[in-house]
Amino acid sequence: MLEIKNLRKAYKKTIAVDQVSFQVSSGKVAVLLGPNGAGKSTTIKAIAGLINYDGQIFIENHPAKSLEAKKLFAYVPEMPNLYELLTVREHLDFIRHAYHSSISDEQINAYVERFEMSDKLDKLSSELSKGMMQKTSILCALCIQPKVILLDEPMVGLDPHAIKELKKVILELKEQGATILLSTHMLEMIREIWDVLIIMNRGKVIHEFEKDAQSDSDIENLFFSIVEESTEIKETSDENTF
Question: pTM for the full model?
Answer without folding.
Answer: 0.89
